[in-house]
Amino acid sequence: MAFPDKKTLNKIRKELEKAEGTLMPPENPTPLQKFRWDLCQKFVKFKLDHDYTLEDMGKLIGVDKSKMSKILRHRIEDFSTDRLIAYLQVLNPETKLKVG
Protein backbone atom coordinates (compact mmCIF):
# COMPACT_ATOMS: atom_id res chain seq x y z
CA MET A 1 0.00 0.00 0.00
CA ALA A 2 1.68 3.19 -1.19
CA PHE A 3 1.50 6.61 0.40
CA PRO A 4 -1.33 8.57 -1.27
CA ASP A 5 -0.60 11.46 -3.59
CA LYS A 6 -1.33 15.07 -2.60
CA LYS A 7 -4.64 15.20 -4.48
CA THR A 8 -5.93 12.12 -2.67
CA LEU A 9 -4.70 13.39 0.73
CA ASN A 10 -6.40 16.76 0.21
CA LYS A 11 -9.65 15.04 -0.71
CA ILE A 12 -9.49 12.86 2.40
CA ARG A 13 -8.59 15.82 4.62
CA LYS A 14 -11.61 17.75 3.34
CA GLU A 15 -13.93 14.80 3.99
CA LEU A 16 -12.57 14.34 7.51
CA GLU A 17 -12.43 18.01 8.60
CA LYS A 18 -15.38 17.65 10.95
CA ALA A 19 -14.80 14.05 11.92
CA GLU A 20 -12.89 12.86 14.93
CA GLY A 21 -10.86 9.75 14.67
CA THR A 22 -8.07 8.99 12.28
CA LEU A 23 -5.30 11.55 12.02
CA MET A 24 -4.05 12.42 8.59
CA PRO A 25 -0.42 13.21 7.86
CA PRO A 26 0.45 16.89 7.46
CA GLU A 27 0.30 18.46 4.01
CA ASN A 28 4.06 18.15 3.51
CA PRO A 29 5.03 15.08 5.53
CA THR A 30 8.62 14.23 6.25
CA PRO A 31 9.94 10.84 5.11
CA LEU A 32 9.60 9.62 8.72
CA GLN A 33 5.98 10.79 8.93
CA LYS A 34 5.23 8.97 5.66
CA PHE A 35 6.95 5.83 6.92
CA ARG A 36 5.03 5.85 10.22
CA TRP A 37 1.76 6.47 8.36
CA ASP A 38 2.52 3.51 6.09
CA LEU A 39 3.18 1.35 9.17
CA CYS A 40 -0.26 2.21 10.56
CA GLN A 41 -1.82 1.40 7.22
CA LYS A 42 -0.31 -2.09 7.45
CA PHE A 43 -2.11 -2.58 10.78
CA VAL A 44 -5.38 -1.38 9.24
CA LYS A 45 -4.92 -3.74 6.27
CA PHE A 46 -4.17 -6.67 8.58
CA LYS A 47 -7.30 -5.96 10.63
CA LEU A 48 -9.49 -5.75 7.53
CA ASP A 49 -7.94 -8.81 5.87
CA HIS A 50 -8.43 -10.95 8.99
CA ASP A 51 -11.68 -9.40 10.27
CA TYR A 52 -10.15 -9.01 13.74
CA THR A 53 -11.54 -6.92 16.56
CA LEU A 54 -9.45 -4.39 18.46
CA GLU A 55 -9.27 -6.88 21.33
CA ASP A 56 -8.06 -9.67 19.01
CA MET A 57 -5.29 -7.58 17.55
CA GLY A 58 -4.32 -6.12 20.92
CA LYS A 59 -3.97 -9.61 22.39
CA LEU A 60 -1.78 -10.68 19.49
CA ILE A 61 0.70 -7.85 19.99
CA GLY A 62 0.32 -7.47 23.75
CA VAL A 63 -1.45 -4.12 24.07
CA ASP A 64 -4.87 -3.11 25.36
CA LYS A 65 -7.82 -2.12 23.19
CA SER A 66 -7.21 1.63 23.58
CA LYS A 67 -3.59 1.40 22.38
CA MET A 68 -4.64 -0.77 19.45
CA SER A 69 -7.28 1.81 18.56
CA LYS A 70 -4.66 4.57 18.61
CA ILE A 71 -2.45 2.66 16.18
CA LEU A 72 -5.34 1.99 13.82
CA ARG A 73 -6.33 5.69 13.88
CA HIS A 74 -2.76 6.89 13.30
CA ARG A 75 -2.61 8.51 16.74
CA ILE A 76 0.88 7.18 17.34
CA GLU A 77 2.72 10.03 19.04
CA ASP A 78 3.21 7.79 22.11
CA PHE A 79 4.75 4.94 20.07
CA SER A 80 8.31 4.79 18.80
CA THR A 81 8.87 3.67 15.23
CA ASP A 82 10.82 0.69 16.56
CA ARG A 83 7.88 -0.33 18.74
CA LEU A 84 5.45 -0.12 15.82
CA ILE A 85 7.75 -2.25 13.68
CA ALA A 86 8.05 -4.83 16.47
CA TYR A 87 4.25 -4.99 16.81
CA LEU A 88 3.84 -5.36 13.07
CA GLN A 89 6.36 -8.19 12.97
CA VAL A 90 4.33 -10.06 15.59
CA LEU A 91 1.29 -9.87 13.31
CA ASN A 92 3.26 -10.71 10.20
CA PRO A 93 6.79 -12.06 10.72
CA GLU A 94 7.32 -11.96 6.93
CA THR A 95 6.86 -8.18 6.86
CA LYS A 96 9.29 -6.41 4.57
CA LEU A 97 9.87 -2.72 5.16
CA LYS A 98 11.08 -0.38 2.46
CA VAL A 99 12.56 3.04 3.04
CA GLY A 100 12.63 5.60 0.26
Order of helices and strands: HHHHH
Q: How large a portion of the residues is in β-strands, by DSSP E?
A: under 5%
How far do the termini sit from each other? 14 Å
User: What portion of residues is helical?
Assistant: 55-70%
Descriptive report:
The protein is globular. The protein contains five helices and no strands. It has a domain of 65 residues: 434 Repressor (Amino-terminal Domain) (Orthogonal Bundle). The chain has 100 residues and is mostly helical. It starts with 5 loop residues before the first helix and ends in a 9-residue tail after the last helix. The model has no long low-confidence stretch (mean pLDDT 87).
Describe the secondary-structure layout:
Elements: H1 6-16, H2 31-50, H3 54-61, H4 65-72, H5 81-91
Helix pairs in contact: 2-5, 3-4
Summarize this structure as a short list of keywords or feature phrases.
0% strand; 100 residues; 5 helices; 434 Repressor (Amino-terminal Domain); mainly alpha; globular
Summarize the structure.
The protein has 100 residues and is mainly α.
